[in-house]
Amino acid sequence: MTPHVVPDPQAGAAVKAADRAHVFHSWSAQGLIDPLAVAGAEGSYFWDYDGNRYLDFTSGLVYTNIGYQHPKVVAAIQEQAAKLATFAPAFAVDVRSEAARLIAERTPGDLDKIFFTNGGAEAVENAVRMARLHTGRHKVLSAFRSYHGATSTAINLTGDPRRWASDTGSAGVVRFWAPFLYRSPFYAETEQQECERALAHLEDTIAFEGPGTIAAIILETVPGTAGIMTPPPGYLTGVREICDKYGIVFVLDEVMAGFGRTGKWFAAEHFDVVPDLLTFAKGVNSGYVPLGGVAISEKIAATFETRPYPGGLTYSGHPLACAAAVATIQVMEDEKVVENAARIGETVLGPGLRELAERHPSVGEVRGMGVFWALDLVRNKETREPLVPYNAAGEANAPMAAFGAAAKKNGLWPFVNMNRTHAVPACNVTADEVKEGLAALDAALTVADEHTV
Ligand SMILES: Cc1ncc(COP(=O)(O)O)c(C=O)c1O
């Protein structure tokens, strides 16, 4: 239950004024934004200073996998702060060792060594560095429809338009098309065709780039921000085979898809694939303290057994972050949070979204698994023309802005990206909360429907 919220608009105005005066926000024209002042959060909800409460269908930035303010994780952070608030990364520290053990036990295959970072982008940076040093090659292949973070290498690997302003075009990155049947780059009509053609395209790209120049292929196991496109059966195992054939390191980015979101600890389990390196962050400790990392296979770890790994971070394996990870993983086990995500996806969220798609002309496709779903909104179901153009802004983006505003009016905080809304609640969301969210989406989609033709 959310505690009784006493509105305090004056306090909210002060928070907002200081924010506007001094906080420089990510990805924004500073003068054009109007951030909501948040007064508190608990479980699947947060609220503002005016007494408005929102069901969070974004999990923050898709990371509060156990919801806000889980008392056991909060207590673990408090206890760790009292015991040993920080310690440098070169030492063996109990809570760091334990976090690494718990993570390694859950990652697939022989990914048994953990390099800790402060977040996802740093995990990607270090995975790429490891792959380059391991192979002695420089190029990295990544998918056009992808997001890998905002640091220098990670943003260059990213496919989505947030890359454009920082794209050096020389970071050793080559992009290719990964499978996405609904908007097939290969004119495919079946999942099987899409899979075969995507694999052939990848192998052609490798042949023409020069297999001996390619250090790694990086893919989100299930691409997240780019649209939650579950890969067709056989694709990821096909990529695994291609990597083995050419001695290329296979990196799976599970920063968003990992730690329960797809209804398994890691999305790779759905596809029977084990990468050489796996990046994680977000759900590892529900973002209560910044933490990310790379899970490293035996083969790559061996490269750095007697040769130093030339990379590090002051806060690598920070005790507070690791304590939050240990407690989060324990809570996820005890409260069967991963199982809940799978069951909610199969029995409530997936069927509920499909039912909305049947009734709303603006919903072109529903796709996803667990608590990881996208609604692809269209102007017309036949032509599949997106409800707004790719990377639309201002007036061109008005239909999606109207959809988002309608969702908020109905008490739902929606994830909106281009012509899509993603339903990505906490992995421990209840069936009743999901039903509440579906009702709010229903109302908001009626507004999107007005823009169909
Ligand atoms: C798949 C993926 N990789 C990497 C990142 C970057 O993570 P961070 O923002 O923690 O640097 C994100 C963030 O959304 C992500 O979704």
Automatic annotation (TrEMBL):
<dbReference type="InterPro" id="IPR049704">
    <property type="entry name" value="Aminotrans_3_PPA_site"/>
</dbReference>
<keyword id="KW-0032">Aminotransferase</keyword>
<dbReference type="InterPro" id="IPR005814">
    <property type="entry name" value="Aminotrans_3"/>
</dbReference>
<dbReference type="Pfam" id="PF00202">
    <property type="entry name" value="Aminotran_3"/>
</dbReference>
<dbReference type="InterPro" id="IPR015424">
    <property type="entry name" value="PyrdxlP-dep_Trfase"/>
</dbReference>
<dbReference type="InterPro" id="IPR015421">
    <property type="entry name" value="PyrdxlP-dep_Trfase_major"/>
</dbReference>
<keyword id="KW-0663">Pyridoxal phosphate</keyword>
<keyword id="KW-0808">Transferase</keyword>
<protein>
    <submittedName>
        <fullName>Aspartate aminotransferase family protein</fullName>
    </submittedName>
</protein>
<dbReference type="GO" id="GO:0008483">
    <property type="term" value="F:transaminase activity"/>
</dbReference>
<comment type="similarity">
    <text>Belongs to the class-III pyridoxal-phosphate-dependent aminotransferase family.</text>
</comment>
<dbReference type="InterPro" id="IPR015422">
    <property type="entry name" value="PyrdxlP-dep_Trfase_small"/>
</dbReference>
